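[Q] Does anyone have a clean structure-token version of this?
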Amino acid sequence: MNPAMSARSWAVTAVGSLLLTGASTAAVTPWASAEGANPTVASSEAVATLQRASQAARSQPYSGTQFLSAWTRGATTSVVVNVIHVPGRGSLVQVPATADGVGASILESDSGPSAADGPAGLDGSPAVLPGLDAEPLALLQRNYDVSMAPAGSCAGRPASVVEVRRRGVDASLAGRFWVDQRTGLVLRREVFDTQGRTVRASAFGTVDTDAVPTMSGKLPPTSAKASGESLSAGRLNAMRSTGWTAPDRLGADLELYDTRATGAGRNQTLHLSYSDGLSTLSLFEQRGRLDAAAVRGWRRERIGAADVFVNDTLPQRVAWAGNGTVYTMVADAPGEMIDAVVAALPHEPEPARGVLARMRHGLVRVGSWLNPFG
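[A] Here you go.
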């Protein structure tokens, strides 16, 4: 095991190793549909629905089974997880064992190091209690048109459907959220690329919101919601002056909303969180050169002029080197957005070989796969 990987990182990596041997895409068929829906209600109701969902992700007890799927150039990845949420305690996520691999469990606390100093993310780390999600919701409203669509259902429960559309002539559909009318819990989520293809989807197959579940047996270590010390704008600018990249924006819409640092000297890692309100990615920077052995088993791919290594897990991970820096991107985002980010950052035609600068595998919170408002 990479010594830089925490127990939480190992658990998430174990989840990733099961993706291709877990549920098939066909397992997602129980999802209800609101196909052909057109916006019918002003966006203020849609924003209020999403705000309610953000609150429910913390305050609503629930247990159930979720299907998670992602479609990329390299693979279609799907997994089934069991999840239990106890308000004030956290969420226990369990990946059942399969014939080809062991299962994995992770306990994500409702409180932690990031609870006082980071904005809540619609799709990524870090998060704040309780439901202080003004920044990502503001990004969502700034970058997309949000509106209500005709009601639908998921897991046998009536749901309000919120549609997220791109601004422009085509007003193409970028995402949909099914929000439980009774509890406000997000029951289903879909994200689409600009070609109308589904690139990310998650949904409850079964869910119980009437009883407070219990977490029994031996529990895994509690995970932190964000890694490292939060950086002030002044300190971040000082790091930029010494060669750290840390752009304020990636592509047209992704904005930097949280910055953290771990370690010191050659082992220092910068953790940058970006979002456009719908998609989120974490970018990790570390000085040094990338040894291909560190990404053994990852798929090698050409993105524009860059040679990168790709791990088709949930979320997808991409690593490459450029200008003496190793970049590791962990993204819950469409492929076209990932491509734009790689193209915008420094890269080398061929991966540098030599001494491995310890590359930390940045991982967004498991809860972000299960509920974009967690």
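[Q] Thanks! Anything notable?
[A] The first helix runs from residue 7 to 17.
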